Amino acid sequence: MLENLKQKFPNALTNKKDTDDISNYVWFEDFRSILGIPRSEITAEEIRLLELLFVPSINPNNLNAHPGSPWKNFLSEPNAPLPLTSWENVRFLHFKLTHADFSNSDFEGAFLAFVQSDAAIIWENETAGVLIEPDKDEPLSNKELIAITSTLESDFYVKTRMFTGRFHPVDQDLRHHWTQEKKCFEVAQVHLPDIKVTDLADIIPYSLINDPSFKNANWFINEILGKTKQDTELIKTVKTYIECNSNATYAAKQLYIHRNSLQYRIDKFSEKTGLDIRNFRHALTAYLILLLND
């Protein structure tokens, strides 16, 4: 079957030794032969289809820190093309190390061992990088990431700080989200240096203080609320609940609804936004975002 596939992709290679950079090709193999198809000549849909028919010789998503990695180029070069990948949605886990007197590849291997799905690590420099995590499996929670950082710190004798972004479609807007999250991570390192793993809910108040012009307000609103901002009834419920000092009974009376209905809406908001507004920090973030949205 690979021989027939060669007719569709005449520039495909049948030997890895025929190229100086195997990452420029998507490789598949069967029990007799191997075929490398140029990434520039195959679509993401075609990759997904071929993955069902053949065994990937090199995982097309696992472009870990190769100097010519399409992911590295995409994030660091403004005009770089979007990488060809079967991933539909990804999030960035930004990390920073206090020092690097060990092999980056050793740290990378240890980190990736905790990730259930395929993932890629792109190093920005010797002490900072980003793990690109697809949404194939259950994503790592902040609690799990805290445990992972503790293990990595004990193994490599290094302090590690992380920032978890949100899942986004793999499109041209992805670089913008990566840039915005990097700024958020910088804010976290300045204002919350003792917290090992932070996210948007932790840093939004500090980000807004640092940006009195609110030029990035729409990005924060979309990241937190998403489609929820169109649900006026839900927004009103959450805002009233917070204004009532998180007193569910009083808030239900103000809204003329049953307490169970209030609880249902609060749970729905938490599920949609990832914010547990029973927590003070999350409630503060939610209220600031709701005010900005108004």
Can you walk through the features of this model?
The chain is α+β, with helices and mostly antiparallel strands. Helices cover about 45% and strands about 15% of the residues. It has 3 domains: about 1-60, no CATH class; about 70-210, Reverse transcriptase/Diguanylate cyclase domain (Alpha-Beta Plaits), CATH 3.30.70.270; about 215-294, PucR C-terminal helix-turn-helix domain (Arc Repressor Mutant, subunit A, Orthogonal Bundle), CATH 1.10.10. The protein is globular. Residues about 60-70 have low confidence and may be disordered. InterPro entries: CdaR-like_regulators, Homeodomain-like_sf, PucR_C-HTH_dom, PucR_C-HTH_sf. This is Transcriptional regulator. Pfam families: HTH_30.
